[in-house]
Write a structure and sequence with these properties.
Oligomer: single chain
Largest sheet: 8 strands, mixed
Structural class: alpha/beta
Strand order of the largest sheet: 5-4-3-6-1-7-10-9
Shape: globular
Number of strands: 10
Number of helices: 5
Order of helices and strands: EEHEHHEEHEHEEEE
């Protein structure tokens, strides 16, 4: 069965974006970007929320036409364009670039999607990730921790999030970013506590 992988960059203090949505603190150099390309090329779909899709669609469709962009960036433009995308949005009227708009996250539909053949699927966008997490639909977490303290912004995990995860990989990159890859632990059975 295909996995759903949450793929997110965060600051050292746990924010995925600054207070006004800033991402200028991301430290994506050629080494890290090539790693992204190598991993994402093996996936079968991007699952995005509206904001993430619009952010990506604003830049990546033609990024390979600008010779000023790095080679890994130009390579990713093709990966992004060609990869099927499912955009979860109640308000987006349509989406281009090999995309399908889905109005609601329906667990049974996501489970059926996971049962189809092909590579794993990448989940992007913190709000959508929160929904998938609450529904128990995320199988793996790939968190790229950037050596930056933002101070405030949008946290990746909400205060009510409770996850039991198992670290299966950690990898430092030359720019100080560290990949932490976790698998979701199976739910533990509830245990009763004796009174008194």
């Amino acid at each position: 069965m295909r996995k759903i992988i949450l793929w997110m960059s965060v600051s050292l203090d746990g924010f995925f974006a600054g207070p006004d949505g800033e991402l200028d603190w991301h430290r994506v150099d050629d080494e890290l970007h090539q790693h992204f390309n190598d991993e994402l090329r093996r996936m079968s779909a991007f699952l995005d929320g509206r904001r993430t899709y619009e952010l990506m669609a604003d830049f990546w469709p033609t990024a390979d036409q600008d010779p000023g962009n790095s080679a890994p960036s130009r390579e990713f433009a093709g990966i992004w364009r060609d990869m099927p995308k499912i955009v979860y949005s109640r308000t987006l009227p349509r989406a281009d670039w090999n995309s399908t708009v889905v109005r609601e996250v329906v667990p049974e539909e996501v489970t059926a999607l996971k049962a189809q053949p092909g590579g794993d699927m990448v989940l992007g966008g913190a709000d959508l990730a929160g929904t998938f997490q609450r529904l128990g639909l995320i199988d793996e977490y790939r968190i790229y921790v950037h050596p930056v303290v933002v101070g405030r912004g949008r946290p990746l995990f909400t205060a009510d999030a409770r996850l039991d995860l198992r670290l299966v990989e950690s990898r430092p990159f030359g720019n100080g970013v560290v990949l932490l890859r976790y698998l979701k632990e199976p739910a533990r059975p509830a245990t009763g506590q004796a009174d008194g």
